[in-house]
Please model this.
Amino acid sequence: MVSETETQSDSLNRALEANRELWDAWTQAHVKSDFYDVEGFKRGACTLPDIEIKEVGDVAGKSLLHLQCHFGLDTLSWARRGADVVGMDFCGRAISQAMQLAEELALSARFVCCELSELPSNLTGQFDIVFTSAGVKAWLPDLTVWARVIAHFLKPGGMFYIREFHPIAGVLDDEQTPECPPRLRYPYFHSKEPMQYEGDGSYAASDVQKDRPHHKWCEWTHSMGEILTSLIEAGLRVEFLHEFDYCTYQSHPFLVRGADGFWRYEKAPETLPLMFSLKAIRPSKQQ
Ligand SMILES: C[S@@+](CC[C@H](N)C(=O)[O-])C[C@H]1O[C@@H](n2cnc3c(N)ncnc32)[C@H](O)[C@@H]1O
Model:
């Protein structure tokens, strides 16, 4: 008889495999997209938003591990700022592209291809900074595992930094008409059962893959309490949690672009948290 645990791990593996296939197809389209503007990056543009540069601080001479690095533009932007970088992602196509870019631009960087939970078996060493950003948590089934991986790779005294879409933004309908006020559509609290999605385009490219355009994938919701508690239980000390009323792209139809290029819900006095950033430290033994 098949045990319940085997069935759960089979269905988790199937979900992760579907997501990997999705990211393979999306990566191919993203590399050519205006959203990622690879040509601009090659000419020297930095893909890191100012808020990350300010909040992470000076990285020159520091070791930096970038979790879920996609095809490496942010990883290589940190390398251009003087960090000794390692990027990781489970998408083979993204990692090959990242390595190719690093070579073409003569930037020193290492890249590892594996599922996040398997990183401790695929990479050795500890880092001054573990960094991750913009669209990472929804792909992870279990934040307890995520937080342990982060703690595992941080040196004592090292810093974890994340800038991410706010869990509150994640519950709002992203397909309504622009005139319609924000309305609830998705769950806020985590469930082991992923939400199933299907569609033709990605956030960065509407035309993903002409010969096989339709994809199915899985996402998991994680509440703000879960994010914070997973990091605290892994032994990290949270230094700040900043919430922002803007998003770096039009995540929802009702957002309007401001003069600063960011997208907001502009129906004052109503406001919405759309992104957050968090910094946490792995305490040194004596602290
Ligand atoms: C939205 S992207 C991160 C975006 C990045 N900040 C950027 O803008 O380029 C999410 C990344 O997570 C990776 N990913 C998704 N699930 C993963 C998993 N379980 N383990 C490792 N990487 C994963 C995907 O391949 C993708 O490259």
Observations:
- The chain has one domain: 4-281.
- The longest strand covers residues 154-165.
- The two ends are 50 Å apart (CA to CA).
- The longest helix spans residues 4-31.
